[in-house]
Amino acid sequence: MAAHNKLTQKQIEAAKADGKQSKLADGGGLYLLLHPNGSKYWRMRYRHGGREKTLALGVYPAVSLKQARELARTARAQTAAGIDPVAERRRTRPGSGRRLPEIARAWYGSRQEQRARNTLEGDRRSLAYLTDYYKDNTDINDITTAGVSKFIEHLNLRNIPARARRTVQILAQIWDYAVRRGIITDERRNPAATARPLLNTSKPKPQPHIRPDELTDFYRAIQTTHDLHPYARPLLLLAALTVPRPSALLSARWQDIDLTARLWHIPAADMKTKHPFTVPLSDWAVEI
What we know:
Helices cover 44% and strands 14% of the residues. The chain is built from twelve helices and seven strands.
């Protein structure tokens, strides 16, 4: 397959996807894959064993046009010699960096500054299901839709629909993370996203609640009941007066509360939105 070198640097820099993935061909099977989010990936189509395959050559601009052409030239030479470039890359690339647990840890670490502590803790528990199921030496390139389907069956048997759903969602995100870093070496559709419909659906449960006409009796009971934990009464009253997330109230620190200004400053790290939040305190809240 001859290379025609159709693309220019100016074309590549100006290229944008119009709402969906598109391709810019350079010739000889080499093309630039354009994503709607602005990312640009070098890919090469080739045939081996009677099948058309795709080889990932890196992300532009980290891999320049010249470098992509050199990589494509090497791959064409391999196919001419009867060698599958994807299989050869897997055979010669060191195992480190492709193992699922290692990539999962890197994905988790990349989120430390973006997510609230409670979200990270929940994701850590979900990751445990993933890393307990897949062996330590599992190459992420070897994960298939059929394999993820079996993993979902394993999760469904545990009857943890919400946790199972989040665990499979995380696996899909880890796959995308590996694609963005050139660790995934082909263009298969994300196997976790493909298998996700196999998850058991959970019926929504109504949240425990108190009707407005019951509030007076409820707060009277808080004030008069003697067998409450010493912390329960003030916490329940503060929850009603400030309406925070329960986790924010339980993790409140004196250093975040300004009794003089009657303000409770919740730091960004404790907020799901990762933005600081200020709660005004009433006279009753200050007294508590």
